[in-house]
Amino acid sequence: MKKITTAIALALSIAATDTVSAQASQQKAVSKATQNPWTLVYEGAITKNEKGKVNIHPVTYKLNGITIAANVYTPAGYDPSKKYPAITVAHPNGGIKEQTAGLYAQRLAEAGFITITADASYQGASGGEPRHTDKPQYRTEDISGMADYITHYPGVDANRVGAFGICGGGGYTLKAAQSDKRFKAVATLSMFNSGEVRRNGFQNSQLNTIQERLQKASEARAQEAAGGKIIYSGVASITDEEIAKTPTDLYREGYEYYYRTHAHPNSTFLYTTSSLMDLMTWDARDQIELINQPLLMMAGSKADTKYMTDEAFAKATGTKNKELFLIDGATHIQTYWKPEYVSQAVNKLISFYQTNL
User: Fold this and answer.
1) Which residue positions in the chain have pLDDT lower than 50?
2) Which of 146, 293, 345, 357 is at a distance of 20 to 30 A from 243, taking alpha carbons?
3) What is the domain-level CATH number for residue 150?
4) Pick from 142, 174, 177: which is nearest to 66 by CA?
5) What total number of domains does the chain contain?
6) Contact at 8 Å (CB) between 6 and 247?
7) CA torsion sign, 228 to 216 to 285 to 236?
8) What is the DSSP string of 229-286?
């Protein structure tokens, strides 16, 4: 428990200084992203649009007065006069559309679906101030906002729209599907219940400090309201040594993914401390029984976050069609990028959506 608490303390503190290692990593991130015309940083990403192949289409639209930046992927041989099923893809906490969300959106488009993945409001290339606001109601609205846009996209069959969410995007997808019945089939991968973790700590390691952290979040909001400096929680940069010493797979491999192997300048682990007022009183499982659509929840068998998928799956009693699919040998972050695990997840998703859309 002490090791877990140490990891969470690191994850919830801002690095005081930028190290040479972190600076070099950021430079590599910029370099890798600029090598791709759409700044995609996943393996096998589209490098140019070609007739007869899967294409990517950057789009923007307004959602509650904020400009949302999104990418739409169309299948090979896309014909706007035909009708296609569509899938919204919600990115992880700290993530953006150019990382694992884009990878899965592209792979699903290769299977014949029109897909959309958007940067969350206040994050990535989307608008909204203050930056890095991370409130559950906004993230949930972002998912319905993707449905607003994609149901009117040429060629989309509005009666065959599915929702898919990864990590934190999975928790928010569960919440969106409770009320948004435009989603006819719902799937999650490595679901992360943001409210539960922000409230209780990862693996319930911070139960004794809930009131203290709520007080700090309240003080941060008061400071914002008074026109003062915005306070942030999270990790701004991290050294290789700090990564190596992080005991939990989720955070250690997460730092490697976001700050080293799949880094992108728009991706950050920072979020406004005041957001905790909303995050800590929210839970992806609350009223989950309202989901009556077909439900697929996937997790790595070795993921230290698997308990969150198990908890939500057990409470999803409102649907008669639900399945828990384990990706054998995978940790949470490995489901984002490792080819053999991604292929298992994609194949399962294709079968699920083809059956239920």
Assistant:
1) 1-21
2) 345
3) 3.40.50.1820
4) 142
5) 1
6) yes
7) positive
8) PPPEES-S---HHHHHH--SHHHHHHHHIIIIIT--TT--S-EEGGGHHHHTT--TTT
